[in-house]
Protein 1
Amino acid sequence: MEELIDKQREDSDNYDRFAALVEKYVDIPELTTTIVNEFIKKIIVHEADKSSGLRRQ
């Protein structure tokens, strides 16, 4: 039960941070490198899958 409560608190904190970030940039005229870097935490690229005979990334 404690794990569930901790997960709920973490999700709520993440939502609050994201909502504040969106509110900060609600009327931007264009995307800048700084803005993009604030919104993207990480990009994960997995190895290509060729099991169907077609390359799928």
Protein 2
Amino acid sequence: MAAKNNGQNDISEQRQIRRDKLAALQEAGRDPFVLTKWDQEVRSAEVIEHYEEYEGKTLSLAGRIMSKRVMGKASFMHILDRDGRIQCFVARDNLGVEEYQLFKKYDIGDIVGIRGEVFKTKTEEVTIRVEELVLLSKSLQVLPEKFHGLQDIDMRYRQRYVDLIMNPESKEVFIKRSRIIAEIRKFLAERDFIEVETPMLVDNAGGAAARPFVTHYNSLDEDKKLRISLELYLKRLIVGGLERVYEIGRVFRNEGLDPRHNPEFTLMELYQAYTDYNGMMELTESMFRHLAEVICGSAQISYNGTPIDMGSPFRRLTMLDAIREYAGVDFSEVTTEEEAKKLADEHHVEYEARHKRGDIINLFFEEFVEEKLIQPTFIMDHPVEISPLTKKKPSDPSLVERFELFIYGREMCNAYSELNDPIDQRERFQAQEEAFAAGDEEANHTDEDFLNALEIGMPPTGGIGYGIDRLVMLLTDAQAIRDVLLFPTMKSVKE
């Protein structure tokens, strides 16, 4: 006898069988797609965790059939809802002969509503003794096998809906993501911040070093850009007197894909009047510690097997001191572009002809320091050349009042004492225009309306941007940004 074909033909045959079952149900007047609602009183986890409260009560639940064991006149199945699985005892005597015969034909993946009494089996498993069972949606596709199914990482990202069904740990990441964002909003509300929304389609995509996506607005017959940052509009609101504002939203950067970068990602930026980058450090450290304690249950967390201490005071280190410590190079004694490039040549640090002393300093930091910053560390006082929107340090105009927080060798946020001098800002924009002309496609362009806002007058302000996706990665121990994006950007599959 020939072996059964377990390939695509077999799957197609199973799908046809499901379609035939649906047709039979429809012919019998039992079309599941006609039903419009089911009273889902409670979810599985609530019943299991509070069994003593629900024992003996009749409850209404709903979920997807994930396992099914038919044993003559009585059967068991597990249904899956958002919070987990629960066992169901389905007996002919409780359900009736006709309904029980229909149940026996249901498939893994079908969505059902159940009503029944809560009890425990001899093995102490919380179970629903089903008294009513209704097919709410017929699954016409075959779910992967539990242990041999959706293991293909690429397919998990492309068919996230199946990943969420088959992999509970994946669903937990996204539930935690929602909790993290909700907790951030709560934290900022307690500090008197106002949440706002700003445009995604803009004329001038500024506020960060990145290439924008360009689109065309048909109604106005004008090209627009997708925003790469939230900064310039939020600062306009500081000028307008809102004093403490933030936005959590999508931004778009026309860059490559890797484990830490996706061309569209979630950014949170906040701005607080009458403070500086020191105030932003306090807020950041407090918020990160609070999130770890609430989401992870402790300020001592683990990422990729490495203990991360979010409870101790975060280390503070200037960029020049960090390079001196980790690379043995003292840029405080390097005053010219030529000297900086000579040092880069000696240490095999690649640079471009347009790069200035400050750019070289940043390249040294990226090459020799960044990946070594495992425990939470604030890197402060960046070169002015790489910080076009930041106030200069009064004690050293070659540096600016800026910091980045690094954890596990990754940048978690970027903060400034915001530049509020419109004359200085215009000069910085001009330098960025020159950099763009020299080949820097990520340079900012002059924003005349923003300059006008600064001329109206902006108070001293601290500002910061957080990559929400990287924060979620840290707090869920996810190894790639695609693991925390429900629908990451993927290269199209040609049929």
Protein 3
Amino acid sequence: MQNGTRLAAIDLGSNSFRLEIGNLDYGQIQRTEYLKETVRQGNGLDHERNLTQEAMQRGWDCLARFGERLSSFKSNEVRAVATQTLREARNRESFLTRGSAILGFPIDVISGQEEARLIYQGVSRLLPQSDEKRLVIDIGGRSTELVLGQQLNANKMASYRVGSVAWSAKYFANGEIDEASFIKAEIAAKAVLDESLNTYRCDAWDIAYGSSGTVGAIFDILEASGWTDTTISYAGLQWLREKLIKAQHIDRVKLAGLKEDRRAVLAGGVSILCALFGLLKIDTLQPAEGALRQGVLYDLLDRDNGEIDVRSASIKRLANNFGIDASQANRISKIASAFFAQIHNKPARDAYEIANETKALEWAAQLHEIGCQISHSDHHKHGAYILDNADLAGFAVSESHRLSMLVLGQRGKLKKLEPELEDIIFTQQLFCLRLAVIFCHARNDLETSRIKLSIPNIENQHFFLTLPLGWAIEFPQSAHLLREEAIAWKKVNWNLNLLDC
């Protein structure tokens, strides 16, 4: 990306939606604008884990305002990510489909591990570089992330389903606060966070940092009350806990530095932080300037640079762990992407989108045999399961699921993928992958430059594959597999037309 490029990150949190805009300045991103709206989607999940219509509407209204501000941005300059509430919501697709259209950019639901990685990126990029071992804590509305890292590298990451919105609603219902409620909330938080003890014990880090809303709100209160000017101490946290208990109700809490948008979720956040201080033996917590949205901005830069795109590193790591035949994977990847290029060489299409679509196809090709160590005959099914359940650094949930569906569809009947085939780009990616698998079935290098693929009319759902004259005689098995492939596509109302030239 060129110096001076504008970048934007949207964080769809359980309590607030945030928009961060910055300018690229010689490798650093300088903030130019920051917008925050308290949406409280985390309170909008009903007993069946569906977002209520009111909660969705609050989110859409906010996204409409953000979308207006981002109307002049390009697709590669914006990324929107959603966290725990939308990870949980059973009807999330309803919200995401309309929300993406309103915003004007796709919204990625990210896993807890990926959220933790991006939080660390945001925190570490805004800290002085040193060799200190860092513990980073982020208490969100419905999840808490813990990360161990050094310099810019996140080494251990975890996400726990405990957050300020959820804990405030469950243990401080209707805003009522007492000692018994605090004890229950802290015990419950420790029960969820207890497994963090082995990994995040106090001898594993030098300095503890706290990121985002809850830690920032607590620090503001303690600073305004004269307890600190640099850190959150255990003594200060206990003083705040006692103040909340004495008030008996959140509406009666009178504290300097308390912002109204944090009032309703303060007790839950304090109880979780108290639990973490006790569990991990934290003496002081340093508030950090960076957070998830800064991590998303710097990840946009990394995605633009293919050599440091963390997603490519994740694919290589997974391929290595499962002992994939690298020669065959590269062979399939090269041919599949070459076919895809033949049908997407129109200048009218967005080059950034085409590049991302090609990357996804190449990654699926690199991992198409990942399930072979489990079963040869059903390796596509096992590979799909692995990709749907692996925490792939850098990938949104939708991105890893797309890889999973491509791997599943590389062979066999296509009926199993009928819902996905409504997506024209996915269909084209899948077709190119299946063609590559056919042409490379003998695991030999094959010259395919004279084989031409075209889709003259997408609406008519016709693929045209033009083969050199005499090719079917020279490669009878491949020709047979192509005829079988034509039959398979016919069953899902696509036509593969085989032509000689």
